[in-house]
Amino acid sequence: MSRNVTILGAGLVGSLLSIILKKRGYEVSVYERRPDMRAANMSAGKSINLAMSARGWKALDLAGLRADMEPLAIPMYGRYLHQPDGQTAFQPYSRHNEAIYSVSRGELNRKLMTLAEQHGASIHFEHKCHGVDVANNVVQLSHNGADKTIQADLLFGADGAFSALRTSYTHMNRVNCDQHYLEYGYKELTILPGATGEWLMEKNALHIWPRGKYMMIALPNTDGTFTCTMFMPFEGEVSFAKLNTPEDVHHLFDTQFADAKALMPTLIEDFFTNPTASLITTHIAPWHYKDMSALIGDAAHAIVPFYGQGMNAGFEDCTVLADLIDTHGNDWATILNKYDTARKPNGDAVAALALTNFVEMRDKVADSRFLERKKIEKELGNRFPDRFISVYEMVSFSHIPYNTAIQCIQAQDKLLERIMNEGDFFVNLAQSSFCDSLTTWVNEYHAAVQQLDFGKNATG
Ligand SMILES: Cc1cc2nc3c(=O)[nH]c(=O)nc-3n(C[C@H](O)[C@H](O)[C@H](O)COP(=O)(O)OP(=O)(O)OC[C@H]3O[C@@H](n4cnc5c(N)ncnc54)[C@H](O)[C@@H]3O)c2cc1C
């Protein structure tokens, strides 16, 4: 017998989940705090665009949305580096010319909601959840100023980083949770198109201005604009707290982002109109309660955005859940238990990967040793395709579990250090003795990581 499913949140993950559940015969009701963004012509909040990679596309395949989204997605084949002196460099992401894709968050969310409704899910807008009596699955909502309670049969909290269901879990016994705010905030700014609507920087790249303790990135939009995001400490020598006047902002951009500033006629207006937002990482265990409720997406694992994986990870939660439903039918005690066991280590891993990548993006990408290492990784991938794949490629271009990718970091660091300690790699390749040693080292690396779980269809 099918169960009725209640989902909190019609964001990216809640909307996708409702499609997946409807396709499997469940009755689905979604309660969303905000008005319908399609009618209200509002944005979906947070960043205007996001980077979608392999895990995200796989979930869209499951929903049947790939064909709709593909024409709106702009491939980004690598990082386009902007130095303070105006010099630029392009670093490809993969050896096979693979890309991550810039997609409009609002457009994606609107399409997911519409498809969910077409499949028969009902979305109740302007219904804010205030809390859940977890033991009894009673959901407290408010709508138009009035309180309302719902008796949920099966409940999912897809209500984002500040999830009401997660908060309610924390009031139960033996629940571990923590949340950590980064001392950095972010602010969105805009690069405008040219006179005929053309992109004024390379369109097929993720632009990055690494400046050590802070950085700016820019992703292309289909209308010729780029959405820039400035990540900077809230306090300190160079910080949001020090940028109080138009002169302060002009000075920073003249000295650090001059090439971008020339393309940002609305810089001052954007800077003082757009909010400075916070970045949070959350952990919680368990992610579910009996056969009655579970957390999914940011509600289960809010992470910082530096690997471009938050939505991708939330979508992967959905594909894993779909697989479990297909295997275990209506046995929700088993499904939720296995979902929790499978996904929690991956949620923790992607949170840690995202924090690590912040240092890489704001600092290391401009470092010559780091750049050399990237070239060597690429060559190793070409020479030993069955034995070496870089962690970045595992995360962005494969379905290898995040938890496996993170466990490969140490072994890859050891391998690359060994190789780089021998001097110029590309010169050394001319010596057969070096090539023999290289094969031995790669084999040792491969043996060290081989016992890890690389997942089924890992590179599919
Ligand atoms: C600056 C920035 C850049 C990012 N870039 C990327 C990227 O490039 N790639 C990527 O994969 N990820 C990125 N992310 C992460 C991504 O935005 C999130 O992981 C993703 O939005 C999570 O989707 P979700 O549906 O779980 O949560 P959300 O998108 O937050 O949706 C939650 C929904 O629940 C609703 N809601 C909240 N509280 C309640 C309540 N109490 N009652 C009812 N409804 C409620 C909200 O209104 C919302 O509609 C980025 C995040 C930020 C902040």
Give the topology:
Layout: E1 4-8, H1 12-23, E2 27-31, H2 37-40, E3 49-52, H3 54-63, H4 66-69, E4 74-76, E5 78-82, E6 88-92, E7 100-104, H5 105-118, E8 122-124, E9 127-133, E10 138-143, E11 146-151, E12 154-157, H6 164-170, E13 176-191, E14 206-210, E15 215-220, E16 226-233, H7 246-256, H8 258-261, H9 267-273, E17 277-285, E18 288-289, E19 293-295, H10 310-328, H11 332-362, H12 368-383, H13 391-397, H14 402-420, H15 425-428, H16 432-449
Helix pairs in contact: 1-5, 1-10, 3-10, 10-11, 11-14, 13-14, 14-16
Structural class: alpha/beta
Distance between the termini: 33 Å
Q: Within the CATH hierarchy, at the fold level, what is the topology of one domain?
A: FAD/NAD(P)-binding domain
* Percent in strands: 15-25%
Radius of gyration: 23 Å
Provide structural commentary:
It is a single chain. The chain is of the alpha/beta class and 460 residues long. Among the domains are: 4-46 and 105-179 and 280-359, FAD/NAD(P)-binding domain, CATH 3.50.50.60; 367-449, no CATH class. The chain contains 16 helices and 19 strands. The strands form 4 sheets. A 7-stranded mixed β-sheet has the order 6-5-14-15-16-13-17. Strands 8-2-1-12-19-18 form a 6-stranded mixed β-sheet, with helices on both faces. Strands 3-7-4 form a 3-stranded antiparallel β-sheet. Helix 1 (12-23) runs parallel beside helix 5 and helix 3 (54-63) crosses helix 10 (310-328). The structure holds flavin-adenine dinucleotide (FAD). Flavin-adenine dinucleotide (FAD) binds next to helix 1, strand 3, strand 9 and helix 10.
